[in-house]
TrEMBL record:
<dbReference type="Pfam" id="PF00047">
    <property type="entry name" value="ig"/>
</dbReference>
<dbReference type="InterPro" id="IPR013151">
    <property type="entry name" value="Immunoglobulin_dom"/>
</dbReference>
<protein>
    <submittedName>
        <fullName>Down syndrome cell adhesion molecule-like protein</fullName>
    </submittedName>
</protein>
<dbReference type="InterPro" id="IPR013783">
    <property type="entry name" value="Ig-like_fold"/>
</dbReference>
<dbReference type="InterPro" id="IPR036179">
    <property type="entry name" value="Ig-like_dom_sf"/>
</dbReference>
<feature type="domain" description="Immunoglobulin-like beta-sandwich">
    <location>
        <begin position="27"/>
        <end position="63"/>
    </location>
</feature>
Length: 78
C-alpha cells in the first residue's frame, strides 16, 4: 500500500469466508470481516502491521490456513 492509507483490506482466496487472527503484538480494534471473507481494518496504522493467519473450513476434511504478512506504508495520521 502506498500513499494516504485510510483503510486496509486483506482477502483470502477460496470458496468459504475467512477467519482472521492476528499473531503477535498490535491491535485490530474496530476490524471486521466482510461478507466476502475479507478482513477490513478502518483507520489502519503502522501498528496494524504484522502477521495474520487466515483460516477457512467447511466442516469436511481438514481446514486450510495461510499466513499473511501485512506491511503498512504511507502518511501517518494523527
Amino acid at each position: 500500500m502506498h500513499g494516504d492509507v485510510k483503510m486496509c483490506i486483506l482477502a483470502c482466496s477460496g470458496e468459504t469466508t475467512g477467519d482472521y487472527r492476528e499473531l503477535g503484538y498490535g491491535g485490530t480494534e474496530g476490524a471486521g470481516v466482510a461478507r466476502n471473507g475479507s478482513l477490513v481494518i478502518p483507520r489502519v496504522s503502522r501498528d496494524h502491521g504484522g502477521f495474520y493467519l487466515c483460516q477457512a473450513s467447511n466442516g469436511i476434511g481438514p481446514g486450510l490456513s495461510k499466513l499473511i504478512r501485512l506491511t503498512v506504508h504511507g502518511k501517518i495520521f494523527t
